[in-house]
Amino acid sequence: MSLAKSRHAPPKAGVMLEALRGLGYSTATAIADVIDNSISARADQIDIFLSWSDSISTVIILDNGHGMAEQELDLAMRLGERNPLDKRAAHDLGRFGMGLKTASFSQCRRLTVASKKEGRTSCLRWDLDLLAASKDDDWHLFEGPEEGSEALLSPLHAQDHGTLVLWEKLDRVVTLGFGSQDFLDLVDKVERHLAMVFHRFLSGLRPRLQLNINGRAVAPRDPFLSAHAATWSSPVDRIAAEGGVVTVSCHVLPHKDRLKATDQELAAGPDGWTAQQGFYVYRNERLLVAGSWLGLGRGRTWTKEEACRLARIKLDIPNTADADWKIDIRKSTARPPLPIRERLTRLAEDTRERARRTFANRGQPIRSSGGVPLAQAWRAEHFSGEVRYRIDRDHPAVRAVLDDAGAIEAQVLAMLRVIEETIPVQRIWLDTTEARETPRTGFAGQAPKEVSEVLTVMYRDMVLRKGLSPALARERLLNTEPFNNHPELVAALPDEPCAQE
User: Fold this and answer.
1) CA-CA distance, 245 to 322, in Å (whole number)?
2) What is the DSSP letter of 206?
3) Kind and range of the H or E element at 312?
4) What is the pLDDT of residues 217-268, one digit of tens each?
5) I want to staple 117 with a disulfide (CB 3.0 to 4.6 A). Which of 67, 153, 483, 500 is the partner?
6) Residue 370 domain-assigned?
7) What is the reported pTM?
8) How far does Cα 494 stand from its chain's mean position?
């Protein structure tokens, strides 16, 4: 067999690196990619310094990992040195061998990496401006820091081992019109992002990682509010797949009304409640995808709906499943393999439905006492793919009026029907979408006096007209919407109600 003719066609260094700058990293995702290398190097402390100084602002990422000898650093600084198909250590967060370089180039024009191992420090540098000025278009990897930047490497000298990554010439960060306040806002964005991406490393009584930004510890941001008593969580489901076992646990967060302000902010995440719904895909406990329905759905792909904003599903994959899940170089997208898509769809359907119920009921459970279901004023009738909302004629407040209506019963029934047929469904939907919140119901936010006035009318009717004992009347009211939300007012009703007040 004859050998095919070929030509040597190496890419031009400067042109190639400029092209790699457009992979779509943000500053936060780029820093997270560098941190992955630190965690893979067994670092348990990482310090990030974002220093503002106009056009000479810098970013430093320093870890206390095992460090790299000169030859190891040389390989780490080369592009495409490691084959993404190679088997990786179970704890390795990398894959393509490109993250350090592509993430850094997306933010800066000069990347310097210094590493200390066994008492010896090595330092190499990429400089896109020097490559652009080069006449030979070759891949020139420079030794040592840029003249005048030596002091920026000093934090590494105080350590026995570790690695320091330095970004200079932040042309993709400090753009025209970018000021000190913009830089402070950027620091906040980076912190919020890292707090969620690495929250499982930062959590627990003995966290595996201490992460600091400008000297301030980053607190974990658990997107599932796992510690909250009102969060619903399913058992862990283990799914065997070709690339390795996938574990899934479904969660429905408490309604906003049941959360303190701090928990509301925590649950909203960097992009708000609605954007945070969906699957959270982790690889070796590092968050890859934060809130996505992963292209799943019945008939059409699910979109992010207000009604499903409380649904969040934790999904863990091993680093042996990267190819099956189509993990991209930025580690920001994932696509479930075909054999397990149906299983994931079923789990998501159940979680979405639970989230809808929690959202619609403002987190209030459908209470019952002694097996008696909650008496609700409205009920939904489903037929022929449609839904209509009807006032329940047996709700105690409605039944009391109908029983006493006498000659005007027909008019009362006609009035109820008019109300049912004129529910402003579209107005409610628009208000909910625009305000990103459900309208207030159930006397929410009303003064106790206003609730008590209605409650007293109902109580007098039950005791004085229908002959119920005060205890039984109070029990009925506790199982009647919306008084089930006000047990303290029901308990305060007198044993001998007056005929008129």
Assistant:
1) 12
2) S
3) strand 311-317
4) 999 999 999 889 889 999 999 998 888 899 999 999 988 878 888 888 888 8
5) 67
6) no
7) 0.74
8) 48
